[in-house]
Write a structure and sequence with these properties.
The complex is a heterodimer of chains A (325) and B (214).
Chain A lengths: L1 H16 L1 E3 L2 E2 H29 L5 H23 L8 H17 L1 H16 L7 E4 L2 E8 L3 E5 L5 E5 H6 L2 E3 L5 E10 L5 H14 L10 E7 L4 E10 L3 H18 L26 H4 L27 E3 L5
Antiparallel strand pairs in A: 1-2, 3-4, 3-7, 4-5, 5-6, 8-10, 8-11, 9-10
Helix pairs in contact in A: 2-3, 7-8
Chain B lengths: L2 E4 L2 E4 L3 E8 L2 E8 L5 E5 L6 E7 L11 E11 L4 E9 L1 E8 L2 E8 L6 E4 L6 E8 L13 E10 L5 E9 L6 E2 L3 E11 L2 E6 L9 E2 L2
Parallel strand pairs in B: 7-12, 13-16
Antiparallel strand pairs in B: 1-6, 2-3, 3-4, 4-5, 6-9, 7-14, 8-13, 9-10, 11-12, 15-16, 15-18, 16-17
The chains are: A alpha+beta (325), B mainly beta (214).
């Protein structure tokens, strides 16, 4: 029995050791094929996983390109690893490959940088389709994230293509990445108006607005006793998807609500005093002092006061927000 | 108002007028709520189409930006491993749904109540919720079926600690609303840790007199 097995092994080893051409044996050929098959299997598994992972993250064309590049890169590595079993001398190929690689590297430096940046952006995901983002002073709505570039549209409807390398190396401000965002108004009222009542009116109005979020709660307070009036700061949180609509509609409602209660938005006013005398030594008398001085004693310093524009409803509300759409 | 109607039809009460009238070859849908804007729509259909008016998930108005309903209530403290049933009120939205050739489509959604949104969680990673404030009741409260429904909520504390709860977040996509003399739904909240709980809807009417909303 043992003799039969030994002879079989002898026969087998003889077959496997047979040179096919040069020093290449059947065993070498089998190893070559096994490594190629393993490379194909690994490439298919990795490609499948890449496809699944990126399915909803990159456009279909780019996905095909990425999966093909990954497949052939892995297959090429396997092929190069298997080639020594066929006694192929790779040193010449590596030298030639190195030289060609350097040339291609210099020639296609930016293309490769954009490609790599695209891959990193796909994994990092600082923005999604439809997001409002500021990339290097360009405000766009993201329409497509491709493998070499990102396509956007400005709010004026202009097509913008930004190379991925630029996006990857610059600051990106994504205005809608978070669920909610805050904006604020500075609302001015006159000094004679009741600031507490104004705050109450603004809070009531915000409370009735569906998209002004209940939590985080809005914040309304007297922020400044400014030269022209009392400034009420109003901070409101809104869902990121609708914040611009809210910001543009609520302000006018606040203005109308305040004016409906008899309050007014203050206008900048200035009192001009005209000195009508030529006497150099006539002292200037400010109005508060003038009221207490008898008219007889007044020799000069006739004031001219501009008419206060009380009836005008022109708004002096300031916008304070980092984003204009 | 709730129920199924053949077109043309007309409904009117103190607050609302709803009608689908024939206008030549078309059908004209008109909804007018007191002191609110009129809504009109033209339907290109036959008299075989039917209209269902029933309460729907209250997450559509004024614009569908979330799937979550948040009900805030007076904080309650539940004992370790405790089980209790409470009743809350939830807001109602009313859907006017047209059916024809075995397909349904909402032609109008309206509500008589106020709308308000809120943020649950941090601004980065939290979710927008449709927010509603309710008192808590130990038995089903009185409610106007066109304004609010009754939520029967089972609270199960699976922890070994006293737990304080003051709000519940419900997923509108899995809501099961029933209607009849009143509108109701049935939900359960399992408190798994002092900071973690899960909610689910129970697909059975609170009372046999209620029917499933479309």
């Amino acid at each position: 029995m043992t003799g039969i097995i030994d002879s079989a092994l002898m026969n087998q080893s003889t077959i496997f050791a047979l040179p096919l051409y040069g020093e290449t044996t059947v065993t070498d050929l089998i190893w070559f094929v096994i490594i190629l098959i393993l490379a194909i299997i690994i490439a298919k598994i990795i490609t499948l996983n890449i496809t699944r992972f990126l399915k909803n993250r990159v456009p279909k064309n780019d996905l095909n390109l990425i999966s093909k590049i990954a497949y052939w890169a892995i297959f090429s590595i396997g092929f190069l690893l298997a080639l020594p079993y066929l006694n192929v001398d790779l040193s010449g190929l590596f030298v030639a490959g190195g030289v060609v690689g350097i040339i291609i590297g210099f020639a296609a430096q930016s293309v490769f940088a954009n490609f790599l940046s695209g891959i990193f952006l796909i994994f990092e995901q600082p923005m999604k389709f439809g997001d409002n983002v500021l990339v290097d002073d360009t405000l766009i709505v993201v329409e497509d994230i491709r493998i070499f570039s990102t396509i956007g549209r400005t709010f004026e409807g202009i097509y913008v293509r930004i190379p991925n390398e630029k996006i990857f190396t610059t600051t990106i401000t994504n205005y809608v990445a978070n669920t909610a965002r805050r904006f604020e108004y500075n609302i001015g009222i006159r000094y004679q108006d009741d600031a507490a009542r104004a705050i109450e009116i603004i809070k009531d109005l915000i409370d009735k607005e569906p998209f002004c979020l209940k939590n985080p709660a809005p914040s309304v307070y007297v922020d400044q006793l400014a030269s022209d009036g009392v400034i009420i700061k109003t901070r409101i949180w809104a869902p990121s998807g609708v914040w611009w609509d809210v910001r543009t509609t609520v302000l006018w409602k606040i203005k109308c609500a305040i004016e409906a209660e008899g309050m007014q938005i203050p206008l900048p006013q200035r009192t001009v005093w005209v000195n009508s005398t030529n006497e150099e030594n006539t002292p200037f008398i400010p109005p508060t002092v003038r009221d207490k001085v008898s008219p007889k004693n007044l020799q000069s310093g006739v004031p001219f006061q501009s008419e206060p524009a009380k009836e005008q409803s022109h708004t002096s509300i300031e916008y304070n927000s980092s984003f204009e759409s | 108002m709730y129920g199924k109607y053949k077109i043309p039809f007309e409904y009117s009460d103190d607050n609302i007028t709803l009608s689908i009238t024939e206008d030549g070859d078309f059908f004209r849908y008109v909804r007018q709520i007191k002191d609110k804007e009129k809504k009109e729509k033209t339907l290109l259909t036959t008299e075989n189409a039917t209209i269902s008016i029933n309460p729907i998930e209250p997450i559509n108005l004024p614009k569908q930006i979330t799937q979550y309903l948040e009900i805030e209530f007076t904080p309650v403290l539940i004992e370790p491993e405790g089980f209790k049933v409470i009743f809350l009120l939830f807001p109602i939205e009313i859907g006017v749904i047209v059916s024809g050739n075995k397909k349904m489509e909402a032609i109008d959604i309206f509500s008589f109540g106020p709308q308000k949104y809120s943020l649950y969680g941090p601004s980065a990673g939290g979710v927008i919720t449709k927010c509603y404030c309710s008192d808590i009741y130990s038995s089903p409260p009185e409610s106007d079926k066109f304004y609010s429904g009754i939520l029967r909520l089972e609270i199960e504390n699976k922890t070994l600690e006293w737990v304080n709860i003051s709000r519940i977040i419900l997923d509108g996509y899995s809501m099961k609303i029933y209607y009849g003399p009143y509108v109701a739904m049935f939900a359960r909240i399992k408190i798994l840790s002092p900071t973690n709980a899960e909610t689910e809807f129970i697909r059975e009417p609170v009372a046999s007199e209620l029917q499933n909303a479309t």
